Amino acid sequence: MRITADVLQDAGAIQDFVTNTWRPASFDKAGRPHDAQGRPITNAFLNREEWERLDAVIIPRAQQRLGAFGDVMSAGLVVPTTLAEMYTTWRVASERVKADVTMDFRTRQDEDRTDRKTYGVPLPIISTKFSFGRRELLVARANGTPAETYEAEQAAVAVAEMAEVILFDGSTVQVQGNPIYGYENIGGRYQGSPTGDFGTLSNIYSTFTAMVTVMSGRRFYGPWNVYINPTQYFEMLAFYSDGTGQTALERVLSIPSISSIVPNDLVADGHFVAVQLTSDVVDIKEAMGLQTRRWESPDDSAIHFVVMMAATPRVKTNYATYSGVAHYTGC
Q: For position 13, what pLDDT does the model report?
């Protein structure tokens, strides 16, 4: 997860607001904050040590919750942009006809052109706020104890969980009449049923081999990251009685195109979602990485924080309207 200390240097219309009222741009050797022009911020609540403590609890807690969302980012499927982009688009193209095989440059050939479709989704800001009073901070300093960070941790969790929810379930926020679609509601996903309930061990491996076969017929070959409800995940930990000493989980992971299977609380009971982590299936358009900002109340009695990010998943379909996502129910 990228952590930045400023936002949108190219957005001059809001630069003064960002510089003067949000996070300090730098700190001197004594930990005193300075603005972007190097001027001391004489009435700032937090020094460098206190900022570092907040970041130390906010960023790791958020990363713990960014399971599937973090997988997309870890795969390098992040497309940077700025807050000036509120609606992000991409294009998919039809395939070209097969190439000609000739013995002469002068042989007449067809000049094929691909057809293209344009898709788009909103790029929202995901945020939540918390605050604490100046007196709380003064008491903590006087006692030599760190300021309470529980609210900061919970804010980080809330933002990260919402990013994960949007990746799976989409969002009804709309721009130009288009919402955000996720793994479990993108129209082009393959909606499958298992061989049988995963409570019967023999149904598990056959379900996954069937899934891989169907998706290869749609020309999606993996690698597959599988997100499954915890109940079915624990059912996969049962051992076969055939003398191999394998669990169902181990046997499924022996399928070459399946790279991981992890439990995820957002996946409903009896469901799993398999995703091919390639740029033609999903990426993250990111205008602002996860970060913490602050401003002070007019009477200097409290300090307010916002944990925020501006990013959206782009779950895609190809020209044939197929998506590299398989969504199984009834497991």
A: 27
Q: Which amino acid is at 139?
A: V
Burial letters 188-209, b for 16+ CB under 10 A, else e: bbbebebbeebeebebbbebbe
Structural contact between residues 54 and 43, judged by C-beta atoms closer than 8 angstroms: no
Question: Which one-letter DSSP state was computed for residue 129?
Answer: E
Distance CA 154, CA 162 (A): 12
Average pLDDT, the chain: 80
The two structure tokens encoding residue 306: 């916002």
Domain boundaries, the chain: 14-86+120-181+283-315, 190-281+319-328
Question: Residue 265 in contact with residue 326, Cβ under 8 Å?
Answer: no
CB atoms within 10 A of CB 233: 19
Residue 36 has pLDDT above 60, yes or no: no
Question: Shortest CA distance to 197 belongs to which of 229, 247, 232?
Answer: 232
Please give the CATH superfamily to which domain 190-281+319-328 belongs: hypothetical protein PF0899 domain (3.30.2320.10)
Q: Is the pLDDT of residue 33 over 70?
A: no
Sign of CA dihedral 262, 265, 267, 270: positive
Question: What pLDDT digit, counting tens, does each position of 272-325 carry?
Answer: 999 999 999 999 999 998 887 777 777 777 778 888 889 999 999 988 889 999
How far, in Å, are 95, 96, 111, 112, 179 from residue 100 at the CA level? Answer: 15, 11, 10, 11, 42
- Does the reported pTM lie above 0.85? no
- Cα–Cα dist 315/313, whole Å: 6
CB of 168 within 8 A of CB of 229? no
How do 272-276 and 224-228 pair as beta strands? Answer: antiparallel
CB atoms closer than 10 angstroms to residue 326: 25
Q: Tell whether the model's pLDDT for residue 102 goes beyond 50.
A: yes
Buried-state track 7-41, b at ≥16 Cβ within 10 A, e below 16 = bbeeeeeeeeebbeebbbbebeeeeebebbeeeee
Residue 24 near residue 33 (C-beta atoms within 8 A): yes
Q: Which fold has domain 14-86+120-181+283-315?
A: Major capsid protein gp5 fold (3.30.2400)
Backbone torsions φ then ψ of 135, nearest 5 degrees: -65, -35
